[in-house]
Amino acid sequence: MLYMVRMEVNLPPDLDPTVRERLVAAEREYSQGLQRSGRIAAIWRVSGQFANYCLFDVADNEELHECVSGLPMFPYISTTVEALSRHPNALGATGS
Ligand SMILES: O=C(O)C[C@H]1C=CC(=O)O1
Question: In the chain, N or C terminus with fewer CB closer than 10 Å?
Answer without folding.
Answer: C
